[in-house]
């Protein structure tokens, strides 16, 4: 004969309780338990839908502590519905509905929550009867039947630990949507649950004002992005950096800032930055007057020499002059074209090889050795060079990191030459290609970039506000 089962204790709730929404990154909220209301509601501001129509998402901000608007937690979730909700005062509002786990005491279960502005409400969350299970009993005369929590978590380092990965809205500034690097960034971002949009930089235009700076695109204002990944081509550097600077003005996190992109593209400026930070590089000289040609060559040393256009990319505009006479001829030719150039020491012991170090978030995540095609001193992959993975020394690693930091770049390809006196920085690339380094290293470089972006856009603990004593 089966033994009768013991009745389980009801899950007791008071009319107010502490709870958390773990998936939204909200570790502590004080809520009103209202059985008179059917629908649950969460205070949210800056509510904005995004993503494809087949799987729409919504992002919003929550000010979890009533009266303290310096604490703001960015959240995102999948939209499950949008419906009319009538409040207790009889007003009807069309709200987004999300589903997310709620945690009270030691119990976690999924509930539907509508998003609305509860600025004037005493509680940031209202839990309606639809969210309560059958074994839950609400005692209107009691408060905090479940363990109490504290808003202190929003002021401590613990906040970073409890904030989950959330869907981000990310823009890739690129004129080539089918380019390998751009396509990889889109595919990897979507694989991680983010919404990634490719924006043609030249089709952006800007509203520049003090109160509400905006970026527009094809007749509409662009939405607020969590992050922007600039892939600015050399031919549009001035306009591309202006667009990037406008995103920076709106407060958007840019993986590479306009200042670093601009400096890295101007070879003279770049070498001056390297020199200022005492970072090893080939001896370099620059002059504007044709009368200084011999002195210019003398500053660098004996031939062979490198003559390089200031805005050269992918090895274009870089010439090896093997004799002083050849150097003078190349310099005269460049001056005849009214081109800006510099003269640089040729590091013979590098033997047509260089090291590309890929730096993300202040650390080298991959490196490869590039070797030039037969008879070519340039090792660029775009010019037929080949690449293999390579182990780098601590000195080379430190040099690459210091170079990326000097330009304030979150993503950088730092090219090094192995000279007898130590590593020499040849170039710092602010839009490094991903194809060669991913294939050579076998690493998911795009994924590592997104890991860094996700860390950067997570909320940071807020400082406590001090009230003056009267």
UniProtKB/TrEMBL annotation:
UniProt-listed InterPro entries: Asp_endopeptidase, ATP-grasp, ATP-grasp_RimK-type, ATP_grasp_subdomain_1, Peptidase_aspartic_dom_sf, Rimk_N, Rp_bS6_RimK/Lys_biosynth_LsyX
GO terms assigned for molecular function: ATP binding; metal ion binding; ribosomal S6-glutamic acid ligase activity
Cofactor(s) it depends on: Mn(2+); Mg(2+)
Occurrences of domain ATP-grasp (ranges): 271-454
Entry's Gene Ontology BP terms: SOS response; translation
GO cellular component assignments: cytoplasm; ribosome
UniProt keyword terms in alphabetical order: ATP-binding, Ligase, Magnesium, Manganese, Metal-binding, Nucleotide-binding, Protein biosynthesis, Ribonucleoprotein, Ribosomal protein
Family in the record: In the C-terminal section; belongs to the RimK family.
PANTHER family associated with the record: RIBOSOMAL PROTEIN BS6--L-GLUTAMATE LIGASE, RIBOSOMAL PROTEIN S6 MODIFICATION PROTEIN
Name of the molecule in the record: Probable alpha-L-glutamate ligase
């Amino acid at each position: 004969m089966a033994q009768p089962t013991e009745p389980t204790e009801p899950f007791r709730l008071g009319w107010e309780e502490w709870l958390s929404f773990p998936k939204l990154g909200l570790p502590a909220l004080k809520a009103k338990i209202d059985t008179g209301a059917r629908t649950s509601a969460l205070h949210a501001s800056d509510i904005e839908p995004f993503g494809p129509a087949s799987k729409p998402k919504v992002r919003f901000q929550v000010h979890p502590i009533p009266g303290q608007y310096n604490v703001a937690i960015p959240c995102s979730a999948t939209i499950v519905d949008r419906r009319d909700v009538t409040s207790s005062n009889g007003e009807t509002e069309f709200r987004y509905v999300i589903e997310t786990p709620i945690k009270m005491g030691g119990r976690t279960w999924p509930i539907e929550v509508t998003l609305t502005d509860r600025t004037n409400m005493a509680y940031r969350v209202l839990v309606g009867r639809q969210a309560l299970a059958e074994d839950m009993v609400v005692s209107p005369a009691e408060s905090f039947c479940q363990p109490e929590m504290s808003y202190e978590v929003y002021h401590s380092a613990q906040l970073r630990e409890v904030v989950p990965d959330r869907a981000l809205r990310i823009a890739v500034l690129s004129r080539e949507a089918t380019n390998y690097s751009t396509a990889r960034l889109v595919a990897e971002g979507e694989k991680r649950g983010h919404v990634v949009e490719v924006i043609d930089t030249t089709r952006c235009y800007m509203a520049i004002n003090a109160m509400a700076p905006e970026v527009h695109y094809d007749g509409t204002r662009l939405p607020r992005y969590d992050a922007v990944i600039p892939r600015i081509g050399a031919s549009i550097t001035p306009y591309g950096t202006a667009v990037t600077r406008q995103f920076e003005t709106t407060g958007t996190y840019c993986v590479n800032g306009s200042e670093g992109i601009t400096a890295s593209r101007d070879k003279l400026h770049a070498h001056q930055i390297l020199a200022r930070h005492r970072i090893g590089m080939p001896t370099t000289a620059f002059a504007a007057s044709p009368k200084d040609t011999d002195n210019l060559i003398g500053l660098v040393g004996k031939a062979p020499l490198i003559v390089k256009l200031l805005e050269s990319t992918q090895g274009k505009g870089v010439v090896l002059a093997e004799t002083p006479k050849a150097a003078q001829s190349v310099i005269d030719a460049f001056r005849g074209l009214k081109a800006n150039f510099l003269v640089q020491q040729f590091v013979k012991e590098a033997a047509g090889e260089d090291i590309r170090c890929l730096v993300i978030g202040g650390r080298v995540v991959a490196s490869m050795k590039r070797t030039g095609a037969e008879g070519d001193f340039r090792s660029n992959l775009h010019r037929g060079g080949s690449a293999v993975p390579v182990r780098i020394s601590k000195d080379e690693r430190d040099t690459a990191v210091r170079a990326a930091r000097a330009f304030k770049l979150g993503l950088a390809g730092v090219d090094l030459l192995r000279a007898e006196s130590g590593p020499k920085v040849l170039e710092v690339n602010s839009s490094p290609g991903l194809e060669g380094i991913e294939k050579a290293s076998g690493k998911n470089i795009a994924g590592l970039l997104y890991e860094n972006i996700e860390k950067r856009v997570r909320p940071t603990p807020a400082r406590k506000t001090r009230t003056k004593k009267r």
